Amino acid sequence: MSEVYLDNAATTPMAPEVIATMTKEMADSWGNASTGYSYGRHSKLVMENSRHLIAQSINADDNEIIFTSGGTESDNTAIIQTALTRQRLGKHIITTAIEHEAVLKPLHFLEQRGFEVTYLPVDENGEISLADFKAALRDDTILVTIMTGNNEVGSRMPIHEIGEILKDHQAWFHTDAVQAYGLLPIDVKRDHIDMLSTSAHKLNGPKMIGFLYRRDGISFPSFIKGGDQETKRRAGTENVPAIAAFAKAVELDSPEEKQRRQERYYHFKQKIVQGLRDNHIDFAVNGKLDPSGLNHVLSIWFKGISTYVMQTDLDLAGIAVSGGSACTAGSIEPSHVLTAMYGADSPRISQSIRISFGAMNTDEDIDKLIAAIVEIVAKLKRVKEEGKA
């Protein structure tokens, strides 16, 4: 097992308090929340108390929170059901070129069924232009789905400005906030957000639980067909222990804690960059160092060193990081995010790693990472020089 875990954008370890809550509710709240007798009523109460706490975290009303299996289901539900429900008003959708696959693949599905999707380009900081967005918006646009913050490079999208533009337009506004929910302050009313997706395992909660915020007045059929749970908006028996554990993770992630983590993660970023400079490592940051972005994500281009080699050597050193893209069977798929930012021919695409911090990381972890990178680069340089001899 890795001694240092720095892939928190992929998933986070559950907090001890979250584990304790989930374990307790597995014993106490096993009743079906849809039943009317005491076991079910107890589970229903735990679930609704959790719903209230979670709703407050984004300034939503309780009835606007729909529990799901996580970000992927929430994204699919919001995108596909909006398109199918509103196609009589138009078949045009706007998104960005750097969305998560949980957004891009449903959009590809819809394109095959006659919908038109505009993929907004991004600059080298991973940011869209509001001018491009305004130019893309049409009378027949029915949905805008733009992530709050990017999972590979940490860039932040102008969600408030987009919401202001759309507040008098027919298009519904959905944001994938899976990476941002545990770090940034979110206010769905202030930002005129119609739908928002989250996942508990990104903020030290359990896997396979999340929620879809759906503004009161937004209506479409349940994506999952079956029973009438979640007031007929999402079929399937609710996972009350996981819901309670999600609420505990949200409770621990107070506004003050969010700010504290953002500041600590930005300190980690600065420490890594300075450490690499001090050791004369040839690198560049993908995107920009900006304390207003998602500070838990740092993408670095190690010039001349393949992603696979750096990631593997760090793993051998007991440090877990990501290639920033899907890795299967030893092969790394090109990052569509870095491709959109720098072009398909950029060496960054095959020579970058993603480092992502979490609540349990320490300065000592960062020191170990820097030392390991310096050693790996030195070793690769020696091998290269010996090959020339």
UniProtKB/TrEMBL annotation:
- Pfam families, per database record: Aminotran_5
**Record flagged with keyword Phosphoprotein:** no
Q: Where do the Aminotransferase class V domain residues begin and end? A: 4-369
Keywords, alphabetical: Iron, Iron-sulfur, Metal-binding, Pyridoxal phosphate, Transferase
Query: What is the required cofactor set for this protein?
Result: pyridoxal 5'-phosphate
Q: Which domain of life is it from?
A: Bacteria
Per its record, the protein catalyses: (sulfur carrier)-H + L-cysteine = (sulfur carrier)-SH + L-alanine
State if tRNA-binding is listed as a keyword.
Answer: no
Family assignment from sequence similarity = Belongs to the class-V pyridoxal-phosphate-dependent aminotransferase family. NifS/IscS subfamily.
Q: What is this protein called?
A: Cysteine desulfurase family protein
Please give the organism. Answer: Limosilactobacillus pontis
